[in-house]
Amino acid sequence: MKKIRTDIAVIGGGPAGMAAALEAKRQGAGDVMIIERDVEPGGILQQCIHDGFGLHRFKKRMAGTEYAQVFIDEIEQTDIKVLTDTMVLEVTQEKTIYACNSRDGMLEIDAKAVILSMGCRERTASQVLLYGYRPAGVLTAGTVQRYINLEGYLPGTSAVILGSGDIGLIMARRMTLEHIEVKGVYEVMPNPGGLTRNIVQCLDDYHIPLHLSTSVTKIHGKKRIEGVTVAKLDENRKVIPGTEEYISCDLLVLAVGLIPENELSIQAGIELDPRTKGPVLDNRFMTSVPGIFAAGNVAVVFDLVDYVSQSGEIAARGAVDYINGKPMEELSYEETVPAGNINFIVPQRIVRGETADTTLFMRVKKPDKKVAMDCEENGTVIATKRYPFVAPPEMISCTVTVSGSGPLKVEMKEGSGNA
Amino acid sequence: MREAIANRVKEAFPEISAEISVDERRIVTVRGECRSWEELVEVGHYIAHMEEVKNVVNEMTVAGMEIPHKDYTAFREAGEKKGVIDRKDVVIIGAGVSGCGIARELSKYNLSVVVVEMSDDVCTGASKANNGNIHPGHAAKPGTLKAKLNVLGNRMYDRWAEELNFRLDRCGAMGAICDPKMMSALEQAYQVAVANGVDGVELTDGPRALELVPELREYDGEIIASIWLPSMGLVEPYEVVVALAENAAKNGVSFRFNTTVADILTEDGQVKGVVTSEGIIEADYVINCAGVYADEMSAMAGDKSYTIHGRKGTIAILDKNRKPEFASLSSVLTGAEVQSSSRKNKESKGGGMCRTPEWNILLGPSATEVPDKEDNTTTPEDLDYAMATNSNDAAGYSDIIRIFAGVRPADYTEDFIIEMSPVTHGFINVGGIQSPGLAAAPAIAQMVEGILIDDCKERRIPVEKKKDFDPVNPKKVEFRHMTREEQDALIQKDPRYGRIICRCESITEGEILDAIHSPVTPGSIDAIKRRTRAGMGRCQGGFCQPRVLEILARELGKDKTEICQKDGDSRILYDSNRHVTPGGRER
User: Fold this and answer.
1) Which long-range contacts (CB under 8 A, 24 or more apart) does A95-104 make?
2) B417 and B303, same structural domain?
3) Residue B241 belongs to domain spanning
């Protein structure tokens, strides 16, 4: 078995992993390695040919591929080693990584610090309890995107989309442009799951109807899907009898949520947060296992790639500090505490007694307008932010200087009403 | 006899006017109109459970309900047009565990055998959609053919597993009790198991139970006794069927997929062959392993002697991250499971909580009577039933990675029907093979072998064992079960094992290529899944489906648009009108 030593090993060469590797280099790290399972780096951005990426970071609208290329080009200018077509099978608490590919066989990679950036996967038909037959033509939005954008095939001619998450909205437009008739987007919740800009640009502009509080209750067709039954749901998400409607289609696209891909983290005994389904992180984005950091959608599902890259850079700075001997074993922590309309906060905890600029990523529970958010450390308000509009699909990010003197409570009180 | 049966039915079902006829074999045919499908099934069972009745042909209808019947006309016409395409000694209808088991058994002889299957692959019906339990035989009614073949089949599985190299996990099963009131029920279960000849069955005291199943120490109550069934086994059912088919094929059996049998040819009470959708196959023997359609095949052969009513079972598979509490299939019996009012089906309570040999928790199956034999739809009610068997507090709906359903081919006696047809010689019925059909499969195969070989001898058809029969399948590469060193050595030898295609189950390209180039070629995404597990994990093929599809197209020399998910028109991709280069496809 081939053994490799490296200072920093980054698992996953998507936007989080690439940003992390580059930042580690900038911070003076020695050997940095990216392990990527696909044949080239870029991650899911490789199939994101639509624009809207990079607004925050590059102040312009870029395609996903374009955004990725900036990082790929930059990596080529460094000595960062990119191991492609290589699958990581295991990460241990001692930061040993087992990965394999056709060229090297099994690799045993000993890293001084590890950055997890495996991204997320899509929820499936069984996971959202779709009933009926199990024919061909029921695909997740990401798989449809891959077939159309990367492989040049169409997986259907008339489609129903379940779920109004961003990928579902993007695919509604994409399929329409490819002459697949999109019959409608159906959303179980009373509010859309995706960004407002995507509702406007992907549905409204193409006259694609969005049906809220409506779900697919049955899949028809034994071999290839022939249609779906949709029905209105009441406030308890139960079907309202008599509202069932049959819609014929030969493709059902599922955009019903993303799950951080933490199988390697679980194997390594890393503590997960049941709310984010990602590792519990501190303000360096270090997990509960010292020396193992996490960034991007494996930590929490972000809405914007700009935040994903930012999280990679935070984790990289933490990893470099770690290998430079900054004490990070057996730290004691103060919790970050969401209050009011705040649903969750990443990082989940901050290092006690340490003054540091800390970036908080948060989501709200429900839409609201004209709200104020207080960050309160140990009872003292250290920052107040105002937002004209908040909604669960749009992540909130703010950077505050914390002293680690006590719990960091972030509270958003009710504003001027539902947005 | 006719009158007596008619009177008893009238008494039990006063609202129904049932028309009863009985033939000399004591087979009862019942006609008339019921108010519901459940009632129709109940009438069938009621008559079949009369001691003097051999079996029931249920031709009743349901008011206001169109009962789906398969129309074979187009298949038959197509086949007749194509004329005779083959001539074999034996035609086996159906490539489930019975059909493939029998095919492999007969491949020991100098007989020409073909298996015809309406679907695109082996193991697509009831053999696929079950919990993979190799039941010890404690649950079958003593004295039935089922009880006998179950216990015998269970015993024969070790040899099958050894020769065919599939995974058999003799995990054992325990029903433990804390409540002294449950003692008599436990003793009764023990007596039934003993009567059936179940191997190694033990009635134990508390300490012995804890010794056998240490995990029970975690249980809150004090275990006072248990029934221990060491012969309980677990398999992945499709692994068994694929292994049987591959071994049969290796020993000369041929397979015809996407081929529907539409008629049985007979002459002077002797079977002559089958008309399939792809043409006529002449044969001296036809073995009917057609699952839910076995009764229809038998009727085509002029032997209308039973009716199959489909009983749907829904199963939920949970994420491997949720670990089973027990290595064995063990539980503490409280009595609630017997009295449960949610138990809808008098003839079958369905299955409970168990695990797969790959350590996924498996819940169900449920048991719901369905008029459509191909109704394998999942419903919220059936899923709730399956999930109610869950005794692991930590596991729940959010752990589900797959829900599926299958239809059991049940007849009204709820026993197996394995016999040479007394009406059409050479036509052998293997009908009503529902649970524990998987466990009984080796014994069923052996029994059918006996019937056929004895008949050959009687008819002076020269039949002898082949000298070159090879009972052994080579062990398949299973990357996921190897040590890191073994994995490394494997990749060094063959780099194709270094590319992981299915990340959830760690399935390599090499394993997928092994499956494609095996004796029974898989052509669809699901066929690859059954052989390799690619797509069986938590992401359900979201990641690997495009990759598997690409490999299939490449290896089979097909366009990607020709690759199907399963049988019939289940294509995944249509052509695009766009050119994509580079990295994508080129034209």
Assistant:
1) A95/A9, A95/A291, A95/A292, A97/A9, A97/A11, A97/A35, A98/B484, A99/A35, A100/B487, A100/B488, A100/B491, A100/B498, A100/B500, A101/B498, A101/B499, A102/B491, A102/B495, A102/B496, A102/B498, A102/B499, A103/B495, A103/B498, A104/A2, A104/B498
2) yes
3) 73-128+237-308+413-458
Tens digits of per-residue pLDDT, A123-145?
Answer: 999 889 999 999 999 999 999 99
- CB contacts of A121 in chain B (<8 Å) are 538-539, 542-543
How confident is the model over A100-121, as pLDDT tens digits? 999 999 999 999 999 999 999 9
Name residues whose C-beta falls within 8 Å of residue B509's C-beta, 6 or more positions apart in sequence: B496, B497, B499, B500, B501, B551
CATH code of the domain covering residue B14: 3.30.300
Last residue of a domain, one of B458, B492, B519: B458
Residue B286: which of B106, B469, B140 has the closest Cα? Answer: B106
- The DSSP output letter for B398 is G
Q: Is residue B574 part of a domain?
A: no
Which tens digits make up the pLDDT trace of B308-348? Answer: 999 999 999 999 999 998 999 998 988 765 444 444 567 77
> In a 3-state reduction of DSSP, which class is residue B306?
coil
Check which CATH number belongs to the domain holding B350 and give it.
Answer: 3.30.9.10
Mean pLDDT of A264-270: 97
| Cβ B413 vs Cβ B432: under 8 Å | yes
Both B390 and B351 in one domain: the answer is: yes
Residues 152-171 on A with a CB inside 8 Å of B are: 152-157
Strands (E) across B289-372 are located at 309-318, 329-333, 353-355, 361-363, 368-370
pLDDT tens, residue by residue, B432-470 = 999 999 999 999 999 999 999 999 999 998 999 999 999
CATH number at residue B93: 3.50.50.60
* Residue A4 φ/ψ, nearest 5 degrees: -130, 145
| B71 has a pLDDT exceeding 80 | yes
**d(CA A118, nearest CA chain B) in Å:** 12
Beta carbons of A140 and B542 less than 8 Å apart: yes
Q: Going from the N-terminus, what domains does chain A have, and what CATH number goes with each?
A: 1-121+258-331 (3.50.50.60), 124-256 (3.50.50.60), 332-419 (2.60.40)
- Domain harbouring B556, CATH code: 1.10.10
Tell me: do B402 and B429 sit in the same domain: no
d(Cα B211, Cα B228) in Å, to the nearest integer? Answer: 11
Q: Do B554 and B498 belong together in one domain?
A: yes
Number of H-type helices and E-type strands within chain A: 7, 25
**Which A residues in the span 67-126 are in contact with B, Cβ-Cβ below 8 Å?**
85, 87, 89, 98, 100-106, 108, 121-122, 124-126
Q: What is the pLDDT of residue B578?
A: 64
Number of domains observed in the structure of chain B: 5
Residue A367 phi, psi dihedral angles, 5° rounding: -65, 150
Among B423, B458, B493, the domain-final residue is B458
